[in-house]
């Protein structure tokens, strides 16, 4: 073992005459530990929120969507067959997208009306798993059933078996003028996916009923695709653009909700920078610790210099001493952060019972449990940044130690 490492470790373990230095060292170590643990937990929770919301969005929105010109795709069967040949495509389903107005009693609400084939839709979306009343399979062609979002049904005051009137904007030309198309639908189900945008503004009917109401014949608005790996959506979109012919518009889920996911990523980056300041403050305390240690150990430094130690060797001694504080603090913080992030579903309910508060109210957040998604890349990045800051904090005090004049340090000894 080189003497620099041996002396540096001895200085770290040794009982100092000045206990204040030991206290600051301990404070720096704890500060780094708390900062690292806080970073890991906060980023894990933000990852969990992002994953939860992404799952809820993709429960309604498909991974890839192919639409035709003017919201009409004549040969949608051929497009679905050709798209399904891509190795990443797991399922395909046709749909009709249209605007409509729902009337029930005195209540009137606008909604996005989506015509679907229930058995195919369940392969590309998860609305069937979020039914609070009725079943998606109750949408039978010719019976004019409708499935409403929970907030939309609440706004209309409608329940299952109630009959609501759907008004289509496409009108019928009569001698008296243009009259809107009206059709009475029976509520056969209610869903709640936990996203207000869809719960309050989406209504589902059978594809054939939508084609009849909106005068689309055998055409559809487009085809929705589900992928084996949702993160390959951009690559699949590029492949389908080259493979499919005709006037088609192909988009994936990252484009349809680009602003939201970009905002989440920006928030995550800003939280990382803000919480990193905690680690930076703790690393700055290492500077104070080593400066006082250098002042306290000046006679020892002078003796080492007279015995032949080089200025670089003296620097290494104090770099070892400061780096050890950073390494121990980082390791404790990583261990504590991982343990807390993996058990946050137990810790948060305990704190809620202890403090008699509810951190996430269902009326406000739609998510009552604090989600956590611990990612190895985040843990590695946090640990490396913490170690780097700790190492940088040792450079100035070590450089000062290397400049100690042995004659001056031993003058009054």
Structural summary, described in words:
The protein is α+β, with helices and mostly antiparallel strands and 413 residues long. Helix content is 55%, strand content 20%. The protein has 17 helices and ten strands. A six-stranded mixed beta barrel has the order 2-3-8-5-7-6, surrounded by four helices. The longest helix has 40 residues, at 19-58.
Summary of the model, kept short:
With 413 residues, this protein is an alpha+beta fold.
H/I helix tally: 17
Strand order of the largest sheet: 2-3-8-5-7-6
Proportion of strand residues: 15-25%
The biggest beta sheet is recorded as:
6 strands, mixed, barrel
N-to-C series of helices and strands: HHEHEEHEEHEEHEHEHEHHHHHHHHH
Would you spell out the secondary-structure blueprint of this structure?
Elements: H1 3-13, H2 19-58, E1 64-68, H3 76-84, E2 89-104, E3 107-116, H4 118-124, E4 131-134, E5 145-149, H5 150-156, E6 163-174, E7 177-191, H6 196-199, E8 202-206, H7 207-213, E9 222-227, H8 233-243, E10 248-252, H9 253-256, H10 258-296, H11 298-306, H12 311-342, H13 344-355, H14 362-365, H15 376-393, H16 395-402, H17 406-410
Parallel strand pairs: 3-8, 5-7
Antiparallel strand pairs: 1-9, 1-10, 2-3, 2-6, 2-9, 4-7, 5-8, 6-7
Helix pairs in contact: 1-12, 2-10, 2-12, 2-15, 10-12, 10-15, 10-16, 12-15, 12-16
